[in-house]
Amino acid sequence: MFKARVLTSLLLVPVFVLTLFMLPYQYWAALMLGIASIAAYEWGGMTGMGKLARHVYWLLTLVTGLLLVFAADWHLVDVNWLVQMQQWMTFWGILVGSLFWLLIAPAWLATRHHFRHPLFMALIGWLVLLPMWLAMLSLHTVSPWLVFGLLLTVWIADSAAYFVGKRFGKRKLAPRISPGKTWEGVLGAWLAVTIYASLLCYLVPFDWWLVPMLWGVTVLSIIGDLLESLIKRQAELKDSGGLLPGHGGVLDRIDGLTSSLPLAALFIYFPLYMSVLDTYV
Q1: With contact defined as beta carbons under 8 Å apart, do 239 and 109 qualify?
Q2: Is the pLDDT assigned to residue 206 strictly greater than 90?
Q3: Which residues does residue 244 pair with via DSSP β-bridges, in sequence order?
Q4: CA distances (Å), 194 to each of 150, 213, 215, in order?
Q5: What confidence tens digit (pLDDT) does each residue in 4-41 have?
Q6: Which residues sit opposite 39 in a β-bridge?
Q7: CA dihedral 180, 121, 61, 76 (to 10 degrees)
Q8: How far apart (Å, rounded) are the C-alpha atoms in residues 175 and 160?
Q9: Considering only CA atoms, which of 253, 258, 29 is closest in space to residue 124?
């Protein structure tokens, strides 16, 4: 299992980095939407949707996003109107997604409530996946390096938590949700991200706020991981899918991104979002 996990990572990470920096923006956005759509299909399987419903769910996710990305190129709508609509949807999508992870997800984890209605869980799935995708696009317009840096933060935190927790873990973080996660693993993630953020501040350099921001990204990535673990446990599933050998499904690999990227984008883009809010409210 560990060997398959490493081999899959060695294959996927370089491919992802190449697409991030080499693909034109719209095609990269479409690729990320495809990944989010696969995750939507897996979400449907975890939350009790039938096979037909899962297909409809991922198709709706894909078509909606494609229209937003390519409508201007296809001359389906007025370009100025599309730009305004994209700004509006990006702002509200990222804001609502951030509030979900800051307020609702922690309460959900605390109560471990089992929501069973497929339609409700479908809406939650969009609330989990689409803000992540919008945040990726928003951050990419600033710089692909910004996207890479934030993704690397989550990967470093996840890897450090895994190895430190496996070697030193004794105190369970959430035994009824994810018995393998420990407080020692959380400490390992925090230390690794602190070193990473400090190096960035020294080499680039960034302002002082980078370190606490990446701490927040780390905490939110853990919350996202725990929420997916809760839903899998309630569905009596080990993985969200089997697409990635050694890793499980796509959702198993991006759970930390679903929770951390929206708030990172909101923080970085806050002045612009305030101007959008003044325009539409």
Answers
A1: no
A2: no
A3: 248
A4: 13, 10, 7
A5: 666 767 788 888 899 999 999 888 988 999 999 999 99
A6: none
A7: -150
A8: 19
A9: 258
Phi, psi angle pair for 179, to nearest 5°:
-60, -20
Identify the pLDDT of residue 22.
Answer: 94
Report the distance separating Cα 257 and Cα 228, nearest Å: 12
Residue that wins the pLDDT comparison between 78 and 267: 267
With contact defined as beta carbons under 8 Å apart, do 261 and 135 qualify?
yes
End-to-end CA distance of the chain: 51
Which residue from 109, 137, 114 is spatially nearest to 36, judged by alpha carbons? 137
Mean pLDDT over 253-259 rounds to 92
Closest CA to 251 of 47, 95, 100: 47
d(CA 123, CA 44): 11
Of all residues in the chain, the percent with pLDDT exceeding 70 is 84
Tell whether omega for the bond before 212 is within 30 degrees of 0, i.e. cis.
no
Average pLDDT, the chain: 85
Q: Which tokens hold the place of 97? A: 């997604």
Q: Is 195 in contact with 153 (CB distance < 8 Å)?
A: no
Read off the tokens for 191: 């230390």
Sign of the alpha-carbon torsion through 72, 131, 7, 247: negative
Location of structure tokens 């994209």:
86
- Confidence category of residue 240, pLDDT binned at 50, 70, 90: confident
- If you average pLDDT over residues 221-229, what whole number do you get? 95
Residue 120, CA distances (Å) to 55, 61, 124, 126, 223 in order: 17, 15, 6, 10, 20
Sign, CA dihedral 151-88-124-71, equals negative
Distance CA 122, CA 44 (A): 7
- CA 75, 77, 78, 80 dihedral sign is negative
Residue closest to 39 by CA, chosen among 105, 133, 108: 133
